[in-house]
Amino acid sequence: MSRVALVSRLLCSRPLTKGFRYLYRYTHAGAYRHNETLWPLVKVRRDGSERLVGCDLVGVTGPATLPMDDVPRNIEGEAHLVLSGPSIAQIDYTQCRLGAVMGVNGSIALRRQHPSLRFHYYAMLDAGFVKRRRDLVAEVLSQDLLLFVTPEVYRWIAFLFAADDIRCRFALFEEVHQRALKARASPEALEAQLAQDPELVLFDARNPQHAHGFSLNPARGLFGGGTVAYTGLQLLSWMGARTVYVHGLDLTASAGPRFYESAGGQLATALDRQFAGHIEPAFREASRLLSARGVKVYNLSPGSRLGDDVFEKRHWSCLLNQAESPPSPHLLSGLTS
Questions:
Q1: Could you give the domains of the chain?
Q2: pTM over 0.85
């Protein structure tokens, strides 16, 4: 075993990471608690405007990262945000003609059935997924795509995967209300900071779960919406998409396991617990903002927990010919997939 591999295995060991976590909690105030999985193995670099521009890792050299300001914002027309709700299985991707495609977490498993499906972008913010589904993460890393990750996800990828197995490029992002290695902003401080900021639109700083808002410039941070789907929506609209088709936006655990999981073998989800107070309000406000900015979002999940009044629902067959206006789901109610 190489020295780098040995160091990586040691730094990822459960006793050591738990020890770091307990020590951090003991030595830092509660406003810094969200950093307990970063300290002391991650050091962040920021520019003169305090924007996150890079990460340095203790014990291992991480993959190069592309500054968010250098991310191409050249999506023209439509983009597709492919999630992992069970309704994804109803879509026949062999018949679909897609433009720019962003996947999240386990979306890459679609390539096992549809190898011609190409992902241009990817987003991950759940380090637990990286640790528990290394097989799927390895598939993502082997692709020629741009992967957006938080510093915590970046850390685990660097420690768990060999550099020679990584083909994708990386871009780092952080959440506005809990920036990496900084204190979590109080509602009052967040309201004051963003009051005159046209690029970070704050909906509600005092939500009991997380601040609600929408980032028009992810280089300055993203808002959490209770699901990585919300992250992807902010990124795609920033990169220029004027129409976004969202696949698999079921948003309820009762619909069944994710399309790539088997019953009884799925990872835990907080969708049902966070939907009413966090997820639905965030998407509802984002829908109004995007509509006012001329961005149209279509929800391709007919059974989505989000109502048609948030994002208009369409049947996946609208993807068969993008030159035509997407048909009403009511006219397609008799179709089977």
A1: 64-320 (3.90.1480)
A2: yes
